[in-house]
């Protein structure tokens, strides 16, 4: 058994390890840069969608031309110059974290260059008026920035590529949502199911620093304000159960559609997408533009404003423009088509918006007095169903809405919705990562046999 720690000797060792302190300073500096990158993505994405909203409000028919053209341009540019920037970003980080991925191939999934392209491409997708989010891309953006720190670290730093990727991905979620606990749980539940003590310290440092950068830019406020749901009772049980089941069914269906779109199915639509991906993207953009016209713009974009309006409306602050039942269905279709088009973008924001709409629909149908609570449960349940990470969904929604009084309700809803979703679909992000790994393994065999090489594994298009 080892003796007690020698404080003075440990202090001398720490102060005398000059290179170790340089390595730590490098990591902390890159954590600041990761936070700034997420802030930049947030500002550009919000500004891009604001410009689109001005265009749509000035000429209601403009999206019918603007959205297809810009969608095709973004897809063409990404496929030509940075295929690894396509898609959500979370599967790419999972693939880079996989021990079976060669070090030389990790730059195809996560790198500083892809982070820059991701910021521009996601902003372009929101400028087009698509239904995409920026939180999932924030994971890939921050991970790419943190991974770049490895080239400046000493060989004896003890900090691996894996630890930098986990720390960056967790910092990206924490900074994007202003949810530090959500970033920690996301890293444990999704990115890495076995963290070493050293990895945990690095991850916490990155989350704290990136979170402080985001707070400095946007303020230390709950993302959607406070949920006024203190007087909960058993009257919430039935509507809450309906919300959880509905989120599980719809979330599982969306996850299954996303996987089918990614892998490709033997139908004429996927065949046409493989043959003419840019034209297919334009057609998807046209369909989303029609949805934008029908919904007066509420069913496109990340959905944050619509969700805030719902919560403010039930709190008595301002009227809501929510269209019961119609909004939820249109937002669901717009989010699927936006992802199927191949434009880089995430599902976190749209999932929260769809879930909020579903919760508001149940409250409207049953004339429930617990509107705010049902909206929060819907946000939590749908996010848990799509990602199949119930603990992460519960923590993120609790922190975003300051809904600490609903911890048990949120937890129960997330678990039930995730359970129902698992009966319908495989886990979205991990399955996409497995498909990317399979495509990566098939490439050398295809080259040796002289066959056509499969599509790059990071592209959201189905493998050839």
Quick structural overview:
By secondary structure, the chain is mostly helical. It folds into two domains: about 25-220, Clc chloride channel; about 235-430, Clc chloride channel, CATH 1.10.3080. It has helices at about 5-15, 20-60, 65-80, 90-95, 110-130, 135-150, 160-175, 180-190, 195-220, 235-265, 270-275, 275-295, 305-315, 325-340, 350-365, 370-385, 390-400, 405-420, 430-450.
Descriptive report:
- The radius of gyration is 22 Å and the shape is globular.
- With 464 residues, it is an all-alpha fold.
- It starts with 6 loop residues before the first helix and ends in a 15-residue tail after the last helix.
- The longest helix is centred in the first third of the chain and has 41 residues, at 18-58.
- Helix content is 70%, strand content 0%.
- It folds into 2 domains: 24-218, Clc chloride channel (Orthogonal Bundle); 234-428, Clc chloride channel, CATH 1.10.3080.
Q: What's the arrangement of secondary structure elements?
A:
Blueprint: H1 7-16, H2 18-58, H3 63-81, H4 90-97, H5 112-128, H6 135-148, H7 161-177, H8 180-191, H9 197-218, H10 237-263, H11 268-275, H12 277-294, H13 304-314, H14 326-341, H15 348-366, H16 371-387, H17 390-401, H18 407-422, H19 428-449
Which descriptors would you attach to this protein?
Clc chloride channel, 464 residues, disordered C terminus
